[in-house]
Description:
This protein is mainly alpha-helical. About 70% of the residues lie in helices and about 5% in strands. The chain has a two-stranded antiparallel sheet. Keywords: Membrane, Transmembrane, Transmembrane helix.
Amino acid sequence: MGEQRTRRIVLATWGAAVAALPLLWVYHAARGSQEFVNDDGEIRDTLASACVVLLLWAPAVGAVVQPLWRSLLVAGTGGALALAALGGALRWGHRRIDRTHSVLEPAFWERMTWLALRGLVLMMLGVTLGYAIRGIAERLGRRPRTGLVALAVLVGWAVTEALGSRLPQGRFQLSTYIAGWLHGQRLVYRPTADCPAGSCSVYHATWQRSLPVLTAVVAVALLVGRLCRTARPSTNGLSADDD
């Protein structure tokens, strides 16, 4: 029963994430300019948003699928299938519908492939967060339940993002480094009273700067999950009182 419930949770959450992916293109296409067609920008933003959606799905896999290597395999496979299907649909749709504008160069699709691969690597962060959440729930004797621990982590992330948004340059926001990793770089322009303009109000988050920050988050999540399981042995599958 535990394995069946785990499988249902993974498939249901993956299905919900996949169902949301076409809506991402609708959103990015609708917010674009009506006078200037920016197909490459819409495709790039759609794929990047899809990677973020799958990043939010990955903790569910890390929390319910055990052991850790198996959750990484499940999340990687599910993410690869979703991104491959979305990328193929975007490429087919661009060729099929938009025949009046220039065809996107092969180099663009190569960059999109690398973006999708970076998104798959980013999902490791989500899986390890789920691993830590499951470990904390087990350490607390499943009181509060796994879902409540996940909610607490989500609220904590939202609070830190809100606090970081009030600080200059955005260097204290995890979302800055997530975007920097996905896109290769991200410029955050946030002028202050002391620096209304100029380089002092801009933070350049490259993927080289983002990688150590994201690696540190993964390392902390793995450490927390491991320490919690050392104090309380883990169980296979998902118990009946888990969320």
